[in-house]
Amino acid sequence: MSDTACGQDEDLPERAQREAHRVRASMRDGLSDFIADLERWVNTDSRADALDLLEELAADIAASLEAIGFEAELVPVAGKGPYVHAALTGTGQARVALLCHHDTVFDRGTAAERPFSIDSDRALGPGVADMKGGLALAAHVGRHMTDAPWAFGRLELVSASDEESRPRALRTIDRLKGFDAVLCFECGRVDGSIVSARKGGRWFRVRAKGRAAHAGVAPDEGRNAASAICHEALRLEKLDDARAGMTLQVTGLAGGIGLNTVPEKAELTADLRASTAEDLEWAMQCVRMFPDYDDISLELEDLGGPPPFERTPSVTSLAETAIELGRELGHSFDHVSTGGVSDGSWTAWHGLPTLDGLGPVGGLDHTADEYIELATVPERAGVIAGLLVAIELGLLDLVVANG
Ligand SMILES: [Zn+2]
Predict the structure, then answer these.
(1) How far is the CA of 262 from the centre of ligand 1 (A)?
(2) Do 20 and 141 reside in the same domain of the chain?
(3) How far apart are CA 104 and CA 366, in angstroms?
(4) Which residue, 3, 77, 102, 230, shows the most beta carbons closer than 10 Å to its own?
(5) Beta-carbon count within 10 A of 160 CB
C-alpha cells in the first residue's frame, strides 16, 4: 500500500497481490459460469413493483449462491420483493459486505424485447450494468474466495430488491452493524474509475393551492396555483450551482383541470444534489422560504433522499489500495466522486467504510444501450480479492490507528 494510504511505508502485502492474480486467472477460466448466471438474471425483468418477478429472481439468485457455497437467506420485506443475504464463513477475522441490488428501472417485458446478448466484448441487456453485472461479479468473487478461507471471517453478499425507487436506507442495514467494510458493486465508470464519494440527494414536492374560477367570466376571482408553481420552478432553479457541486433540477410540473378554469392546485417535484450534508440542509432552507403569492398557499413535502457519501480516510485507503491492485494487474483506473447515489451512500452514512463502483466497467445505465465490458470482469475480480486480503491483513486498522 502507498504511504499516503495508511501512513506506512510498505508495499501492498504480497499475499494481496498473489490473491489478486489468482482470482483474476480463476475468473478468466470460469467466465462462462459468470455469463450463464448474468444471462438468466438479466433475462428476468425486475422493476421494484413487479413482486412476482422479484420473488422468482431472488430465489434464483439464492439458489445460485448456495451452489457456489454461500449460505443464502431470503429476507421478506413488507410490500417489496425479498432481499437476498448470503454469507461465506472463513477462518479469518474481517467482516465485509458485498453490496448489490437486483431491481432495475425496466418494465415487465423489456427482457423479452431485448434479451441479454454479447456484442464483441460487450454484454448488453436491461440492468446488465445497473447492476446485475456487479451482482454476478460479487457472487463469482465469492466462488473463488472459497479457496482462500483465511482471507475473511464473514463475506456477506447483500442484494436489495428496491434500490432504484427507495429514498431511504436499505431495509436490512442493521445486519451490517460492526462490519469492517462495504464493497459496493455498482458498475465502474466508463473509464474504469471506482467511486469514493457521492453527492447526497433530496427529492421534494411543492404544492400550491389557490382558488378556482371561470377563466373567462371571473378570472380575477381565481388565484392561479399553476402560475405560482411556475414562479417557484424558476426561483428554485437558482439553487443550481449555488454552491460548489450543487445541482437542482425541476423534474415534474402538474396542475389545472381544464382549458377554461383557473387552476386551484398545482405542484412541482425537484431533485437536489450536494456534496455535503450542510449544503443539502442550507438548500432545503432556501426551498422553504416561499415568497408571498397573494392568497395562494404553498407547502413543501420532503421526500427524503440519500445522504452524501464523503471521502473519509478509510475510504481513501480502500480506494488507493484498489488502484494499486489494479496497477499490479495492468488494469489502471482512478477514483472519482459522482452525482449519482447508491446504497453505498447509506452504508457510508452509517459509518461503514465503503468503496463503490467496483462492478465491471460499463455505462449508459437506465438506457436501452446499457453495457458492461466483459474483459474487465476478471480484472475487477482480482482487485476485489486483493482488497479482501488487504482488509483481512489490517488495512483499515492502520487507518484508525493513524487517523
Ligand atoms: Zn444501481
Answers:
(1) 42
(2) yes
(3) 8
(4) 102
(5) 27
CA dist., res. 56 & res. 45, Å (int): 10
The total number of structural domains that make up the chain: 2
Q: How many A from CA of 50 to the centre of ligand 1?
A: 17
Ligand 1 center–CA 22 separation, angstroms? 28
| pLDDT tens-digit readout, 45-60 | 999 999 999 999 999 9
Q: Go through the chain and tell me how many residues it has.
A: 403
> In this structure, what C-alpha cell is assigned to residue 368?
436501452
**Regarding beta strands 117-119 and 187-188, do their DSSP bridges make them parallel or antiparallel, or are they unpaired?**
unpaired
The model's pLDDT over 136-171, given as tens digits with 9 standing for 90+, comes to 999 999 999 999 999 999 999 999 999 998 888 999
Domain residues for the domain of 247 are 202-302
Cβ atoms of 182 and 250 closer than 8 Å: no
**Closest CA relative to residue 299, chosen from 266, 331, 333:** 266
CATH of the domain at 260: 3.30.70.360
Distance from Cα 218 to the centre of ligand 1, integer Å: 51
Measured in angstroms, how far is the CA atom of residue 131 from the centroid of ligand 1?
A: 5
Pairing type for strands 194-198 and 371-373 reads unpaired
**What are the residue ranges of helices labelled H in 254-375?**
277-288, 313-328, 343-349
| Same domain membership, residue 185 and residue 221 | no
Mark whether 257 and 374 lie in a shared domain: no
- From the CB of residue 11, how many other CB atoms can be counted at a distance below 10 Å? 12
81 shares its domain with 17: yes
322 in the same domain as 236 = no
Indicate if 288 and 380 belong to the same structural domain: no
Cα of 69 vs centre of ligand 1, distance in Å, is 25
Q: Predicted confidence band at 236 (pLDDT cuts at 50, 70, 90)?
A: very high
Residues 22, 144 within the same domain = yes
